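Narrative summary of target 7.
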Amino acid sequence: MKYITKVAIFLFYSLEILILLLCTYLTIALIGSSLPINTDYNPEKGEIEIFIISNGVHTDVCLPVETTLINWADFIDTKTFRGIHQKPQFISIGWGDKGFFIDTPDWSDLKASTAINAAFLPSSTAMHVTYFLRKPIERKSIKRCKITRKKYTELIGFIKDSFVINPDMRPQLIPNVGYTAMDNFYEAKGSYYLFKTCNTWTNDALANAGVRTSVLALFENGILRHL
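Modeled conformation, tokenized:
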């Protein structure tokens, strides 16, 4: 009986600690997402149109494929995408947990082990790249921004630096793991953990681009609420 009591007490306190940690994490997320940066951002001064795309949990940065500053097709070869048979107009790029990305093409495929590993253990990462034949249409889950050429140059540098680069100066492809014929995965730099998520990467990208966003965006709302 004493053994059962000790186990019950241990489980009770463990649950209390877990709830406390969760509440602390959510409080940090709430405060961080409420505090804006780049408050002087003025889209009217922007020259280049970009989009932020959300699937409800994960966010990507969507960019025009070709401008005078860069042709993304020269950096990320369209020939490695099975479904691209004409010139795409936009490219969507995101960073995230490699295991979660590759093992979870749909939310119905989510495994508890994948979720726990992504949430609690520093893990390897990947870049998810999707080409679009047409410009995205702005709606609740797709937000439009305009940035200056100077800031777009900084954004280009930030995104390129997130990829692991081969000797041929192109990103290192992870073969045969794309969800569709229009997307691919590439090896990425950095580790994914509780305070470094796919959304903090997007948030950092926007911060580099001079766009109004939050101090810390652990969840997608921390980005979209400011756009």
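The chain has seven helices and nine strands.
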